[in-house]
Amino acid sequence: MSLRLLARLSLVARLMLGAGFAIVVTGSLWLWVATGKDADFARVQIENRLAENAESLLPSLSEWVVIGDYANIEQVLRLWVKHTDIESITWTNASGQALTASDKISAVQAPGWFVHWSAVASPQLSRALVLGGHHYGQVTLVMTAAPAINRLWERFLSHLTLLALALGLVSVGVLLILRNGLRPLAALNQGACALERGDLSARIRPQGSPELVRVIDAFNRMAERLQAVQAAISQESERFCVTLNSIGDGVIATDAEGRIEFINPVAEALTGWTAAEAARRSILQVFSIIDEISRQEMDCPVGRVIREGVVVGSTNHTVLIARDGSERPIADSAAPMRQSDGQITGVVLVFRDQTQDRQTLSRLTLAASVFENSLNGVVVTDTEQRIIEVNPAFTRITGYSREEVIGQTPRLLASGRQDSAFYAAMWSQIMATGQWRGEIWNRHKDGHIYP
Fold first, then answer.
1. Average pLDDT over residues 359-379
2. What is the band of 6 on the pLDDT scale with cuts at 50, 70, 90?
3. The whole model's pTM is what?
4. Which CA distances in Å does 221 have to 150, 214, 224, 228?
């Protein structure tokens, strides 16, 4: 089995495979050692029985061998060959004549490889028959190893059955232990999958061994922290969206490829695109600008920010063309959004309608022109009556230059012809109504008095 295939197996399968392999190897070694010892014992036992049979057989033959009674000799040989593990007995007299008795050979039930491995052979033993100093021939006994081999084979099968039973029991036990032990791991896996799906409320009941209980407690604490962080992020995001939706400028946020991800209500009103319609569209479709003077299409500042990674400020004479074709002068700026490593993740575009600003500027320009070109002298003071501005007519009428009167009070022009009560009443009316009409006598720089 390759390591790659092994890695694809579940933890239970790998543990079962490992435990089974260990049991099989250990059991095989034990079976090999035990069967080897049994075979050694069987060989010794056969040889001992062979020697014992030879010692017992010789006295039974002695009487008949001496008188040469071949019939009784053959009968004795037949009796001996029947009730023992003797395969055959042969008596050979001094002249070379032989009598042989053999029994039905027992069949070997074990397979050939087992017979060869056990190395239990059929031994034979020859003894000379000597009585009273006379030689009466030789007796040869051959023992059969078949019964011993069969007993070895039966014992081997018994051991193998016990080994298989032990392997099965251990496997079942390991499986039960693992199923109960891995149940907390399965719960952890389900909890992790729930977090992956965004269910941060997932919690796991503590179970299993003390080590797994600690791991589950750590998981639950992590999930609680993630839920708290998510809640904080959601709250901050909601506050951020409320802020962007509340400001008076148009705001559009794009990703790093210029696709719109956010557009606030002001930007919706200025461009004519709703947030739902603008979502994931290119900024070029929604934010179309031209030069007010040349009427030529202008480069979108978002594209430059993405290309160059710099903040792009507004340019003069920029006109935004809304979805319905209406035009508005705008001021705009764009800045990159970056990750901690500096990589640009998007762009924020801020722009505002300058129509009202231009109208206000036009009115201010007109007012300044009136102020400068008026034939009447005009004085502007602060709340403490200090002069902050005068027009050219004032300098012509009073003889004082602008630099001479800035920071002074109108009392500089007092002629002395009106008393303090007059001026107090005048300023009281100005503060109450914002205006005063009447005649004041002032003193010219050269000293003469004029109305």
1. 81
2. low
3. 0.47
4. 67, 11, 5, 11
At 188-246, the pLDDT tens digits run: 888 888 888 888 888 888 887 788 788 888 888 988 898 888 888 888 877 777 776 77
Query: For 425, left (φ over 0), alpha (ψ -120 to 50), or beta?
Result: alpha
d(CA 444, CA 413): 7
Q: What is the pLDDT of residue 32?
A: 87
Beta strand 288-291 with 260-263 is: unpaired
DSSP per-residue codes, 79-123: HHHHSSSEEEEEEE-TTS-EEEEEPPPPPP-S-HHHHHHHT----
* Residue 132 one-letter amino acid: G
Gap between the Cα atoms of 218 and 277, Å rounded? 44
Q: Is 201 helix (H, G, I), strand (E, B) or coil?
A: coil
CA distance 350 to 332: 6
Give me the residues paired with residue 350 across strands. 251, 333
**Which one is predicted more confidently, 15 or 77?**
77
Alpha helices by DSSP H, 328-378: 355-373
Residues 75 and 60: beta-carbon distance below 8 Å: no
